[in-house]
Amino acid sequence: MNTTSLHHSVFEIAHAIADRYAHLKVGEDLSYAKCLADATATPSFAELSLHMQGIKLGCRLLGFVEHDAQCIMLAWQSQTQRLGSFDISVWPSNPSDFGMSSFPRKNAFAPCPNQLGLYAVLPDAQWVYRMAQAGVPTVQLRFKSDDKAAIAKEVAAAVTAVQGTNSLLFINDHWQEAIAAGAYGVHLGQEDMQEASLEKIRTAGLRLGLSTHGYAEMLLADRHSPSYMALGAVFPTTLKRMVTAPQGLGRLERYAQLMKAYPLVAIGGIDLEQLPAVVKTGVGSVAVVRAIIASESPEATAQAFLLNLL
I need a labelling partner for 3 at 20 to 30 A (CA). Which of 79, 103, 172, 218 fits? Predict the structure, then answer.
């Protein structure tokens, strides 16, 4: 087989993947030529089989960022070896193909309910109190401040706010204050995860939730065996600048299939209209921020979400 036919085989595989899994496409349109130029700039690409080159380029055509495309390609390679043949119709979803170990694990954090239900992300302890009184099953304090004393006071107030209710309280970022106040759990982003002492959080018995934005970050989070994973952003959101494009429902469903051993929380631009489609992907919880705190009637909005999550 000459070089031209080799390139043609890779081209065919890449476009077959891009066509078959078009529902997974997000982000800007990339041409095959651009994807190929980026890939061939990496010396290891030439060492891949034709199937794996095609998969890598196909994933890039779908808008997967480089490190996620690499994760999918390696998983597809493992799947091919396990099944004994390459099958373009089977998108990788077996945890073992992604290098994930089975449960139970020695390093696992304390468990939380598999169905966390409505998960309200709230700016202060007063909001935590309101939503706990409204019957929201899971609440997160996302309190922004550089004042350590103010943070400790707000975290302690939030812990008090959920007492006597069934609400589970997670503290965003401020893990030391969460341990000191006896919160139910801590939620960390990818950068915060690198800086926090996960061992101290685990030893204290707190639950841990981790944010993820694609395959590579999910696999990184999985190494720490958290209590749950947050998957997003599902839809566009104006609350924070996102490095990655909104993931969409197609990818969310694939992520849920892969990470089914975990309680999963979908987050990012979710409102009541989109809620049924999000739930159908297989996640057991939906996190909302603006949908509640920007509502004219937050308690009524929370009740509407709760009814649709039953």
Answer: 79
